[in-house]
Amino acid sequence: MAILGIPQVFEIPIASASAPYNLVVIFKLTHFIVGRGTVVSGRIEQGTIKPGEEIEVLGLVKGRPLKTTVTIVEIFKKLLDHAEAGDNVGLLLRGLKREDVQRGQVHYYTSDE
Questions:
Q1: CA 51 to CA 69: how far, in whole Å?
Q2: If you write DSSP's letter for every residue of 18-80 in order, what string do you get?
Q3: Distance between CA atoms of 16 and 21, rounded to whole angstroms?
Q4: Whole-prediction pTM value?
Q5: CA count, 13 A, side-chain hemisphere, 63
Q6: Sequence-separated (6 or more) residues with CB below 8 Å from residue 53
Q7: Region 65-90 average pLDDT
Q8: What is the average pLDDT across 84-88?
Q9: CA 28, CA 108: separation in Å to the nearest integer?
Q10: DSSP letter at 5?
Q11: Which listed site, 44, 54, 78, 82, has its alpha carbon 20 to 30 Å from 110?
């Protein structure tokens, strides 16, 4: 398929709720809540995420990936029991400081199922 006479050389990804969770974090604002953790925002590229699940924060930080737990999943100030591919979400990450996360990092979760 060609758009404006230019051949298409890439495939458009399809969001899949059945794939493992993968969130590319695109920060506009991050908030540190004393005693709770850090709220980050981003778009879920694939899979689903629920409060209580452990995730890893990858990239841009020296050392090993940071492990944390998602305590709250929120979309536009509404608490959710889960979010899936294509959703723009805010996640409260337990035990992380604002300095631990940066724009462009990936939060990754792979289920054991």
A1: 8
A2: TSPPEEEE--S--EEETTTEEEEEEEEEESEE-TT-EEEEESSSSSSPEEEEEEEEEETTEE-
A3: 9
A4: 0.74
A5: 7
A6: 21, 69, 70, 109
A7: 90
A8: 86
A9: 20
A10: T
A11: 78
**Cα distance between residue 37 and residue 26, in whole Å:** 18
**Is the predicted pLDDT of residue 84 greater than 90, yes or no?**
no
Q: Is 2 helix (H, G, I), strand (E, B) or coil?
A: strand
How many angstroms separate the CA atoms of 40 and 92, rounded?
7
The DSSP output letter for 103 is T
User: Residue 41 and residue 90: Cα distance in Å, rounded?
Assistant: 4
43-77 tens-digit pLDDT: 887 778 899 988 888 776 667 788 889 999 999 88
CB atoms within 10 A of CB 83: 24
> CB neighbours of 26 closer than 8 A, spacing ≥ 6?
41, 42, 43, 103, 104
